[in-house]
Amino acid sequence: MQRITIDPIQRVADTLQLTNEQIHYLQRVLRLKPGDVFIAQDGQGEQWQSQLTEVLGRAQVLSVLTRPPRPVTLELVAALPKTGFDQVVRQATELGVTHIRPLLSERTLLKPSPKKLVRWQRIAQEASEQCERGYVPDIATPVEFTQWIRGKSGGKSIQVGNYFCVARVNSPGLLPCVQALLSDSPQQSIQVVIGPEGGWTPEEITDAIAHGYQATSLGSGILRATTASLTALAIISSVREQLL
Amino acid sequence: MQRITIDPIQRVADTLQLTNEQIHYLQRVLRLKPGDVFIAQDGQGEQWQSQLTEVLGRAQVLSVLTRPPRPVTLELVAALPKTGFDQVVRQATELGVTHIRPLLSERTLLKPSPKKLVRWQRIAQEASEQCERGYVPDIATPVEFTQWIRGKSGGKSIQVGNYFCVARVNSPGLLPCVQALLSDSPQQSIQVVIGPEGGWTPEEITDAIAHGYQATSLGSGILRATTASLTALAIISSVREQLL
């Protein structure tokens, strides 16, 4: 069934007050007519079976649907690639990511305009509707790598579930690391950090390890930055799925 | 170092006779000048360190590079999605696929023109150059699902390493299946089959199982067809990497 994401304040008693954009989407894109049924979600797990009415911009809530289980935290921290981040946001959402944090690292070439964040949020929302997850991932404002890492508590000890993917360096594979972690505690939050084209600088790698990140490898092959993000999330989601 | 793929017949003794397209690519796209060194590969594992000469269209072979190990067979059989197959070919090549077979299934909407095959082959070649694999995957001409499955030997017994991914059906996960298989024989060839938007028809699933395919799941979430292909390959490549 077709889905749209609404703001909870749009629900007034048993009616949904739709925005012009939502009306356009339901009628012109999804081709729904008065009387047709769809699912409205708030992106935080609430979802309602709803029906378009004859009154323009108003839908009737028919029933409250079961809340899907809240997903375990899976955060993708990715240095922005030059192109292709739209695709990363879409696919990451399908793979069940709960938080996306874009970084500007030393070798990041893109300086995104503030409009990009709005665009990524819309893409994440659409992907969440399509894949019926009921939850829309949070997307943070891009920050500099140095600023981001400074916000982390330092210390030599590895922070559980924090993985920093490096290429062309001899590090343990992400798959066995995640399997060892989740076989003990399948509900453990995971954060995975992926570099830009050209990789991390040696200083960035040192800095991440000094802040408790475990350096991990996605294999001996060379992956583009966008493929690396997807590969890491596919591995983590599959292991979690196997153990939950 | 920059790479291009050449036909072995372009190598005559210690010189490479380059095509106009290759000259354009080396000089205009990769910005190489006479004297600059690059790697020429034949896409089948042979690779030569080479140097552009002053003579237009000619390069000097400096040395024969070590052949990378021949990759173990990993075949992606994918019902063509409506859009996004270019991206699948690119990312599948990065993830080490050796064969790609596009299928036209019951619910496939795309009827690709013959030009598409040439385009996919060029994308695979470029991706192989970028990720320095030395091997370019074979891409087969798209065929109908029914024609393809008829070419398989039937029989009730499961063919080892043949996985048929299904959505919304209770099947064992691809990850544990591949781990069980490869932990016994890490060099085992694998073929993984992915459906189109809208999934397989019940008849197609029955047909595949009757031809020895093991039905497997990529998880409880709903993935678009393109994301499903990459998720499957990321899982298989990571397991193989872990065990080889």
Structure overview:
The structure is a homodimer of 244-residue chains. Chain A has 244 residues and is an alpha/beta fold. Chain A folds into 2 domains: 3-64, Ribosomal Protein L25, Chain P (Beta Barrel); 74-243, Alpha/beta knot. Chain A has 7 helices and 13 strands. Chain A has helices at 20-29, 85-94, 114-130, 145-150, 174-184, 202-210, 225-243; strands at residues 3-5, 11-12, 15-17, 37-41, 47-52, 58-64, 74-79, 99-104, 138-139, 143-144, 162-165, 190-194, 214-216. In chain A, strands 7, 8, 9, 10, 11, 12 and 13 form a 7-stranded parallel β-sheet that branches. Chain A has a 6-stranded mixed β-sheet with strand order 1-4-5-6-3-2. In chain A, strand 2 (11-12) and strand 3 form a beta hairpin. In chain A, helix 2 (85-94) runs parallel beside helix 3 (114-130), helix 2 packs parallel to helix 7 (225-243) and helix 5 runs parallel beside helix 7. Chain A is elongated and about 65 Å long. The relative contact order of chain A is 0.15. The mean pLDDT of chain A is 93. The A-B interface holds A 87, 91, 94-96, 130-133, 173-176, 218-224, 226-227, 230-231, 234-235, 237-239, 241-242 and B 87, 90-91, 94-96, 130-133, 173-176, 218-224, 227, 230-231, 234-235, 237-239, 241-242. Chains A, B: It comes from Leptothoe spongobia TAU-MAC 1115. Chains A, B: It catalyses: uridine(1498) in 16S rRNA + S-adenosyl-L-methionine = N(3)-methyluridine(1498) in 16S rRNA + S-adenosyl-L-homocysteine + H(+).
